Amino acid sequence: MTRIGALNRLNSRVTRIEHFGMHVDLVKTSRGVVRIGSMPDISKLLNFHGFREEIVIVPPWKGSMAGDNHTGEEFVLWNAQVKGSIKKAYVGAPEDLNLIYRHLDETFSFFFDENRINIVKKRWLKKWFDRQPASPVYENGSLKILIENQNITLTDQGRLLYNQNELEDCCNPDTLVEAVLKKTDRDSHHRPALEIKPIGTGNGFVGTVASCVVRFKNQVIWIDPCGYPAHNLARNQVHWDDITHIIVTHNHEDHVQGFSACLKRAQKTGRPINLITAPSIYEVLENQFTPLCPDFSQLIRLIPIVPGKKLSLDSIDVECRWNHHFLPYGTLGLKFTGGGKSFGFSGDTKFDDRINDLVGREELLPQWFAACDLVFHEVDFDNPNSVHTHWKSLEKLIESVPGQVLGYHTPFLANAPLPLVEQGKTYSL
C-alpha cells in the first residue's frame, strides 16, 4: 500500500482515519479507545497511525465501489494471533454481530496442525472476538453505547462523546471512484504476447496485498482483487472496466478484500463479473457476500475451474491445482498459456520437501511449473516453520524450474537473497 490513510482529528476525543472516501472513527473513552466500523486494510492503517482499540462497534454491513465496512476485521484478528493483543469487545446489534462472526468463522478459524499437514479448526475466534450485543444499549462502567435508529452514540460519565449522525461524512466513495475512472485511460489494445502486471505483492500485514493482472490478446484477467480496486488499478495504469475476468484463488481476506467493491461495481454498471474459481470456493463467496448483495447470483457469471482440467478462454488457457494451504474449501495455484508462452502463479502454498514427501502429491512438486517461462511464487523470509514457503525452500524450487522464478506475497526487500516481483512492472513473455 503506497498511500496511507489520512488522519483527521474531529475534536479532542474523536479521530477519523480516511482512505479513498472510506473511514473509521476512533473515540477516546474511560474504557479505552472505541473504533466504529472497519474497512479494507484497517489493521495496517491502525498500526501505521499507532492506535490500539479495546472496543469495536460493528455497524450494519454496507458497501460501496471502494469496499465495505466489515472487511478488514480478519487481519485485525490475524495481527492479534501472530503478534499478541487483548481480547476486544465487539459491540453491535445481534444480527450484525452474528453476521460478521459467521463470516470470520469461515476463514479465520482454520489452520494447520503442528506438523503443517492437516487442516484443523481452532478456537481462535473466541479467543480474540468477545461478542457484546447492544439491544440497543451496551454498558461498560460509565461508558454507554447506543445503537438505534441508524445512529451510534457514545456517552461516558454522563457526557456525550460521539454522535455519528452529527458528524460530517467523508467524500462519497463512489464519487471518488468515478472521478478516478474518468482520469484513467481505457486500454483495449490487443496483446500479442502474455503480459503480467503485479498490482500488489504484499500480504495482509504489509504492502498492497498480492494481486496481478494477466493480459493476452483481448483477455484481461485479474487475480485476487485487492481493496480499493479503482484506485489501486489506476495507480498501475489499468482501468477497472477493462477487466474481463476475475480469478479468486481462495477465501482469506487478503485475497478477496476487493470483492465487495467488485460486486458494487457490477450493480452500478449492470455487467456481471466473469468469475473464475473452484465451485467450493464460489460456494463460500456466495454464502459470505449474499447478505451484503442479495442479488449476488445475478452479479456473478461463474466459470468453474477444476484442478487437472484445462480451461480455454478464447485465446488463453488456464490450468489450476490444489495447493497445500489451510482452508478446507481449497486454495488454487495457476498456470496461464498463450502465444506459446506460460506464466505460473503459485497462490498461497507451503512448498517444503519434507511436507511434499509426506503429502505425496505430484502437482505440488517443482515439475508443475517446468513448462513456465515465468513463475510468481509466494515466499516468507522470516519463519521456516510458517504456513508459507520459506525462502530456502523457494531457492531449491528456483534451481529446479527452467523459467524465471520471482518471489511475492512478502514485504519488498531491496537486498533480498532471491529475486522478487516488482509491483507495477509489466512482464512480457
Write up what this structure looks like.
By secondary structure, the chain is α/β, with parallel strands linked by helices. The protein folds into 2 domains: about 5-175, Metallo-beta-lactamase, Chain A (4-Layer Sandwich), CATH 3.60.15; about 185-429, 4-Layer Sandwich (Metallo-beta-lactamase, Chain A). It is built from 12 helices and 26 strands. The strands form 5 sheets. The protein has a 7-stranded mixed β-sheet with strand order 1-2-3-4-5-6-9. It has a 7-stranded mixed β-sheet with strand order 19-18-17-16-15-14-26. It has a 6-stranded mixed β-sheet with strand order 20-21-22-23-24-25, covered by helices on one side. The longest helix has 12 residues, at about 95-105. The chain starts with 5 loop residues before the first strand and ends with a strand. About 45% of the residues are buried. The mean pLDDT is about 95.
